[in-house]
Write a structure and sequence with these properties.
By secondary structure, the protein is an alpha/beta fold. It contains ten helices and 16 strands. The strands form two sheets. Strands 1-2-7-8-9-10-12-11-13 form a nine-stranded mixed sheet. A seven-stranded mixed sheet has the order 6-5-4-3-14-15-16, with helices on one face. The N and C termini lie far apart (about 70 Å).
Length: about 325
C-alpha cells in the first residue's frame, strides 16, 4: 500500500511539473527572461490587471475576485497580470507561508482565472522574504503563479516588459520608516538599476511586437496618495519614450486611474484597487487637466484586449460595473 501511495504521489508531482512546463515556454536569450503566451486563433490577446490585493479575502478582495472571474469569462481571458504588493502587510515570511494560499489560491477560484498569473514585486513584498515569491515551491503549490523581479511575456502581437521598480525608489534605502526591506538581491542600488535598465532597453529595441507594454509596481503619473515616482520619470520613462512603448501599467496607489503623457503617446494606467482602497486620498499636485482621463478611489480592476489594429482598456468597480473605457487604434500597413 505504501509503495502504491508513493507511486501515486510521484505521478501527481510529475503531472504538476508537466502542466507547468507545457503552459508556457521559457526562452533564455541573454536579456530578460521570457515567457511565451500564444495568442488566440483570431490573433487577439485578453488579460486582467489587478494590484495591491493579498489580504486573505478582506477589504472586499473576495468580491473583487468574484467579479474578475465573471469578466474573465466574458473576455475569454488569456492570463492575469499583478502589479505588485501581492501579500500584505509584509509580503511572505517564507515559501511555506500560509498567506500564499489564503490570499491567492483560495481567493481566485473562478474557472476563468485558472490561467497563468504574471506578477512583479511591490514595496510591501520587499518587506518580507522577497525571494519566497520567486521560489519554484510556490509554483508546485499553485501552478498559476509566476513571479520574477523583471521579465518579458511575449504574447505575439503584444509584448509585456515587467520591471522591478522598488529598488529604484531611494527613500526605501534612506527613510525606511521603521520597515525592513529584503535587499539581498540588490547589494548596490545604482548598479542594480543600471543593469536592469540596460537589459530592458536591449529587450525593447529587439521587440517586433505590435503593442509594447511595460508593467511595474510604482506609478510614473498619479494623483493618488503616492503621486509620481521621481526616479522612474528620470531613469525609466526616457527609455520607454525612445522605444515606442504604448502603455505603462502599475499599482501602488490604491485606486484606478488613466492618465496620458503630455509629450508622447504613452498612456499611464493604474490598477491598484484589488482590496483596500483609499477613499478621498488624493495627492494635491498640479496636474494638467488634459492629462487626467479617469480617476476612481474605490476597489476594482482593469481588463485589456488587443488585436492587430485596436486596443481596449476597461476599468471596473467592485460590482463589475464599467467605470471607464478607452479604445485606441493603430493603422494597419499593407506590405507591397
Amino acid at each position: 500500500m505504501d509503495s502504491r501511495r508513493s507511486l501515486m504521489s510521484a505521478t501527481a508531482s510529475l503531472c504538476l511539473l508537466l502542466s507547468i512546463f507545457t503552459t508556457f515556454v521559457v526562452v533564455s536569450n541573454g536579456e530578460l527572461q521570457r515567457f511565451i503566451e500564444p495568442a488566440k486563433s483570431d490573433g487577439s490577446v485578453s488579460f486582467i490587471v489587478i494590484g495591491d490585493w493579498g489580504r486573505r479575502g478582506s477589504f472586499n478582495q473576495s468580491i473583487v475576485a468574484y467579479r474578475m472571474g465573471k469578466i474573465g469569462e466574458k473576455i475569454d481571458l488569456d492570463f492575469v497580470v499583478s502589479t505588485g504588493d501581492n501579500f500584505y502587510d509584509n509580503g511572505l515570511f517564507s515559501e511555506h507561508d500560509p498567506n500564499f494560499e489564503q490570499s491567492f489560491s483560495n481567493i481566485y477560484t473562478a474557472p476563468s482565472l485558472q490561467k497563468q498569473w504574471y506578477s512583479v514585486l511591490g514595496n510591501h513584498d520587499y518587506r518580507g522574504d522577497s525571494e519566497a515569491q520567486l521560489s519554484s515551491v510556490l509554483r508546485e503549490i499553485d501552478s498559476r503563479w509566476i513571479c520574477l523581479r523583471s521579465f518579458v511575456v511575449d504574447a505575439e502581437l503584444v509584448e509585456m516588459f515587467f520591471v522591478d521598480t522598488t529598488p529604484f525608489v531611494k527613500e526605501y534605502y534612506t527613510e525606511a520608516d521603521g520597515h525592513t526591506y529584503d535587499w539581498r538581491a540588490v547589494p548596490s542600488r545604482n548598479s542594480y538599476v543600471k543593469s536592469l535598465l540596460r537589459d530592458l532597453e536591449v529587450s525593447l529595441k529587439s521587440s517586433k511586437a505590435r503593442w509594447k507594454i511595460v508593467v511595474g509596481h510604482h506609478a510614473m503619473r498619479s494623483i493618488g496618495h503616492h503621486g509620481d515616482t521621481k526616479e522612474l520619470n528620470e531613469e525609466l520613462l526616457p527609455i520607454l519614450k525612445e522605444n515606442g512603448v504604448d502603455l505603462y501599467m502599475n499599482g501602488h496607489d490604491h485606486c484606478l486611474q488613466h492618465m496620458s503623457d503630455e509629450d508622447s503617446p504613452i498612456q499611464f494606467l493604474t490598477s491598484g484597487a484589488g482590496s483596500k482602497a483609499w477613499r478621498g486620498d488624493i495627492n494635491p499636485v498640479t496636474i494638467n487637466p488634459k492629462s487626467l482621463k479617469f480617476y476612481y478611489d474605490g476597489q476594482g480592476f482593469m481588463s485589456a484586449r488587443f488585436t492587430h489594429s485596436d486596443a481596449e482598456i476597461v476599468f471596473y468597480d467592485v460590482f463589475g460595473e464599467v467605470l471607464h473605457k478607452w479604445v485606441t487604434s493603430k493603422q494597419l500597413h499593407s506590405s507591397v
